[in-house]
Write a structure and sequence with these properties.
Rossmann fold; globular; D-amino Acid Aminotransferase, Chain A, domain 1; 35% helix; alpha/beta
Amino acid sequence: MKNPVISLGLSTPGIFLLRHFPKFGIKAYGLDSNPSELGFRSRFGIKSICPDPEIDGKGFFDYMMKMRKDFDVKPVLIPSSDKFVLPLNDYADELSESFYFTVPEGGLLRKLTSKRYTYELAVKFGFPAPKTCFVSDVEDLHIFIKDAEFPCILKPEFPESWRSGFLEEYCGGEKVIIVNSADEILEKYDVIRKYDDRVIVQEIIQGEDSNLHYFVSYMDRNQNCIGSFTGIKERIAPVHFGSASYVNLVYNKELEEMSVKWLKNLKFRGASGIEVKKDLRDNQYKLIEVNPRFGLWDEVGTKFGIDIAMMSYKELLGETLEPVVNRNINIRWISIHRDIRSSAEYVSKGILPPSGILLSYFDFPIYVGDMRWNDIGLSFHLIKNLFKGIFRRLFKKNKN
């Protein structure tokens, strides 16, 4: 019997895992704490709702131990959502007796989920990063403001801090708040610190969204890079501070070399994605964030032999992996339901012309990451929500 796979997370990356492993005769299961997550609409995989690990880590651990009793062999865990990374780090010793999964040593997963520690690790090992201040009091802000170039952004140290309650409403559901002056920084911080005092203020890396680059890789237990590829985020949703909706895979030697060097210095192992932006002021790639898990468009690597998910599975089951190198890549990745929304925003803000966006849809080959003819229930759900969003915006516009 082949060891089953459990995707921890049922957003777009998790859906791919549910679709992918059954092709190899491997049963795929999926867990998520949000019953509205997209993966529950897919016909693939065996899915269930689990406790939210961000709110109840012990409850999630107990759920996993109870779930283990349903299997005759140890399942393989692959996190595909940020919120499932920390429980693997925090309960590594207990869970490892019942499941296979990858965790770097030294609590590195916990450090990489904190923007503070990620920034400190970048500085320590020479990975360029934008000017940043981790605010402990108003005096810290005054010191930062003296030399800062505006606009800047305010963001939480831990993203979940602004995902509910007053701060979610205050930030309009956005990941960051843009500030254009010293007075505005002080005003916004004065409001936010009453609810979350772990605030980060950071200079915005100058340049268009197409200066956003991403490095996907799998590092084995000896910190050897077994497979990797790079891409440019041509469009993101929402504009400027969102996630990829249209990606052009282009080999970037400089980004590859600096990323692999940094991951080796960290003694990182497993799947990860490193997001950077090229700063037009000094032409340096500067760190935005690290995703120490299976990511949004890691799946496209299967089209040219870099199967990050299968690399993880095989190594966890004891196979020795041989490096896979393919730098002659010519493919695009798109999330249709995300990209239609983001494209509308790019056009309405005058950033991109409609003709350029339309032509990009005919820039073959294109790999579609969300909708599938063989997963019609999910595809219909995405289309329905897309049109509901369009009509909602039109109604709001007409009302105003």
